C-alpha cells in the first residue's frame, strides 16, 4: 500500500508539521491535500440511481444518450478473498492476494481501478459536515498506469452486534507479531460486505493522507456510515496503542460525532 518502506524516512502523528520536510514529500501543500471536511452536496451535484445485478453495483447512468457508460461500477468475481494481514507503519492493514486483487475492481469514468487492500484509522480522517466518526476504512485501488483511487467508508459505533466483515479481519490480528510474517486468511470480499448499502458518495481529487502525501489521488467517500460494535472499535485502538506508540493520532478532546475520545498513552 502507501506505507513507508524499510529505506524510507520515519514519521509519526505527533509531529505532522515535520511531514513537509521529508524527502519527496508533498505534505502540507495548500489545495492539494486530504482528508477533508465534506459539507453537503453542492447545487450542481448530480444524484445517481443505484442498480445491483449479481456481483455488479452501478451508479448511473446520468443520461444514456449523452453518457452511454455508467460513471461508477463496482465488480467482483469471488465473494470470499484471501488477504495478507500485517502491521503497517500506521497500524494493521490487509492486502488482497492474487487473483483477488486482479478481479475486484471499481470502474470510475472508464478507468478500471483494482482493489489492493484495506487499512483503518481511528478516529476517522474525513469528516461529514464537521462531524468525525469512530473509525474509517480506506480501500486502496490502483489502475494499470499506477493511478490511485481510495474509497473510504466511515464507521460509527452503535448498539449493534459485531460487524461480520470487520470481525473476520480482526480475528487475524492475534496472529501478528509472532515473527512469522503476515497472517494469511480468507475473509469476505470487501465489495460483498465491506461497503455501505447506500453508495451515494463524495468524489474529489486529493492526496494520500500519510507521508509522502502523494497527490492526484481520486477519493470516493461514502455518505452512509457502517455500524460497528464498541468492542470492535476498542480492540482496534488497543492494537494500535500496543504496537505503534507515537505513530498514533493523538486526540486531546473528542471530535464532534466520536462517542469517546482517544487520548492514547499518557
TrEMBL record:
Organism: Prorocentrum cordatum
Protein name: carbonic anhydrase
Similarity section: Belongs to the alpha-carbonic anhydrase family.
Location of region: Disordered: 238-266
EC number: 4.2.1.1
DNA-binding among keywords: no
Domain Alpha-carbonic anhydrase intervals: 9-266
Ranges of biased composition (kind: Basic and acidic residues): 238-250
CDD domains: alpha_CA_prokaryotic_like
Pfam families assigned to the protein according to its UniProt record, in alphabetical order: Carb_anhydrase
UniProt keywords, alphabetically: Lyase, Metal-binding, Zinc
UniProt-listed InterPro entries: Alpha_CA_prokaryot-like, CA_dom, CA_dom_sf, Carbonic_anhydrase_a-class
Catalytic activity, as annotated: hydrogencarbonate + H(+) = CO2 + H2O
